[in-house]
Amino acid sequence: MNFELHVNGRPFHAEPRPGQCLRTYLRERGWFGVKKGCDAGDCGACTVHVDGEPVHSCLYPAVRAAGRSVTTVEGLASPDGELHPVQRKFLDAQGYQCGFCTAGFLMTTAALEAERGTADDDGKLDDLPRAFKGNLCRCTGYRAIEDAVRGVKHTERPRAGQAVGRNVGAPAGPRIVTGTARYTFDIDVPGLLHMKLLRSPHPHARILAIDTTAALRVPGVVAVLTHEDAPKTLYSSARHEHPTQDPDDTRVLDDVVRHVGQRVAAVVADSEQAAEEGCRRVEVTYEELPYVTDPEEAMRPGAPVIHAGKGPEARIARVENNVAGEVHGEIGDVERGFAEADVVYEETFRTPRVQHAGLETHGSVAYFEPKEDGTGERLTVRSSTQTPFLTRRALCALHGLPEDEVRVIAGQVGGAFGGKQEMLTEDVVTLAALKLRRPVKLEYTRAEQFHGATTRHPFTIRVKAGARADGTLTAVRMRVVSDTGAYGNHGPAVMFHSVGESLALYRAPHKKVDAYCVYTNVVPAGAFRGYGLGQVTFAVESVMDEIARRLGMDPLVFRAKNVIGPGETPHSPLGEEEDLHIASYGLDQCLSVLRKAIAEDRGTGDAPEGWLVGQGTGLAMTATGPPGGHYADARVSLKEDGTYDIAVGTAEFGNGTTTVHQQIAAGALNTTEDRLTVRRSDTDLVRHDTGAFGSTGTVVAGKAVLLAATALAERLRTLAVRHTGVPRHRCVLRAESVDCAGRPVTLRELYAAGHALGATEELAADGHWGGSPRSVAFNAQWFRLAVDPGTGEIRILRSVHAADAGKVLNPMQCRGQVEGGVAQALGATLFETVRVDERGEVTTAAFRHYRLPQYADVPRTEVHFTETSDAVGPLGAKSMSESPFNPVAPAFANALRDATGIRFTELPLTRDRVWLALDRQARGAGR
Length: 927
Hints:
By secondary structure, the protein is α+β, with helices and mostly antiparallel strands. The chain is built from 25 helices and 31 strands.
């Protein structure tokens, strides 16, 4: 076969493998801008042009490209490097967050732009829901993408020292829009081996024997690893600063499987195809064991014990009852409180499993690099992780390695949302690399993300609350059951967090909580945006709304009467957290935003005739960091060329921390952001960083950067005094120099002076922050919606969100975090659910079955920030990555209650669920 195709103007003659898709063909030749998000044509991240037509390259056979011209995102710019107009528009609008989906949107938009005014122009660019029906974004909420397509410019270039509070663009922006940002697998490692995992077909079974003979005969298979090859050590896949927060109930490869999809063996080969075939040839003999998939049944006497035989060292609360963790607490006497109430309401609420669905799947590459001192090699693990330092710590403990023998790196991470606060691939990849002394890669498929990664915890919450006739709350009692699945990673911590701020938001003299985190034989749950608060807030806010309605009160008036006030101490039945304070208070402003939206929006003219219209609100309070300490180190240095280097340990996955760190340092050093480079998420850079989770990227890592940059500014002034003899008060740091009484000393000169004077210690400074004390952030959501009583269809007519983020360091990025949080929460509210069958097997293991929010599903949310300045956060800032998620579901459910008169207590609020409830209501009224 005489094969040839042109990619970005360059000819390629290598024939594709039989059945090879164009995506893998292009990536194998270094075109890493072509991404893998689904390999099913669902997400559009792999979009390229073939002879000018946009195609999903994961579905396009490479052999069909013979004789054709293929353009990837790397080829959009002109040969002299000038950006394509669409790339420039996405850069100016910052039409991305993590950036993993951006190439797909760019390529789709560029193709449609090229059709403008031609015979092929069918008006798609004027109908973006139709234009982007084949593209998914999990981060942005789509508004930023629309702005990019429409040519709206948001990014700014502020003057020296004025970056804080401005819309500074992400440093990675130019690389994202040109396809040169490097994500986990966007590297070429010579001699790379590929790993595939054999997974359990049973919900609960003991492995009696594994025969690898046939698998090892497959050409290209190098090794098959089983539980016999793995450490016996128990650990948790969850990553926390204090590992004792999680049960140690997991092994790298176990001889007992506890859910369908648990890994059984790892096959390593010189190609993915050979590894997959090797998995098919492994023969496993199982002894099937009884299983349980309902958490209430799992706690009953006689239920199958999922972690039988594990002792107190595993830190499982009650092994024999499948209880991974539990908490119980009471303030006052709730029975007395109910007796004092004029209205008492009690209801049970349920929330489903939800997938994180970051477009970059889990995965890692382990390889060996020479040590700097030439004494041998050390292991490097490149991973899609939120926690490089904690992952290194866990790998060293698990495999008996000293920390200086292991380096962990995270490149650009393609979405996380808590799902990558886990060690799901690094442990087994390291096992293989150490045994084979070869580089090994494991990259999850989209299906593996559903049955082999983690989900949001499904909750069942029973709430009983009482209030007097004047609207004063008297008591709240809650029973919470959280389904942690087969393993307890994050389970007890999520359970504990879920019943904290959700109850502390409201004053009531009597509160009681009983909460259980329960094992079942289902895919494990884990950390997810909101960390349990979203589930319980749905229940609490629904109950508050219902009590207000039964009292005949405006739900906002009822909330305002009962919410915690400025200067008060948050109290929950689990006790007071001593380091948690209301260091700034913007909840009153949040309520004012919602009142104004309601007051100005009384009409229903935008609803179709005959549809039911309603409006509803929800509130949330969130701590600005996890309890128990969250640590960050940063180092800011002056470089020889007179620019600055910022070294931080935290990861970037679209949360915007890299931009904010640059802005913070630019302000402290009185310079412009383009004179600072940020190096991050590499265990070689700084002493320690707990990780990018718990909304700590700004309030913890950012605080460390501020301390380091402020210290360096003082050191540079000290050095200028020594160099010039000018009094300190007359030495002023400028963008590129120090003004010493009118004499400009360039930063290049100052760097040289530091070396000449033997004062190199003055050229860098370190900052450290321990994450305590902590403050709280407030969020409020309002919806007005319309419901078709004949079909159950719901349309969002208006969406308003108020956020108490303290001093907003980058309004454009913070707005994006709010919009993305609202969009993701709407997915969990309206249609997202990881469905499992009676054996606990996931049945929605593809985007087309799972149903992520698309462009057409997400309204344009009006975002309003309060005017507050926090006494704890850096420069007055608070966290705002997780908290926007939490009030969305209850606000939506309360609006639906207002429209229909029906209290919906189970998510998601799918069209069929809504229609069935309306139908039952109509039938009942007709009797």
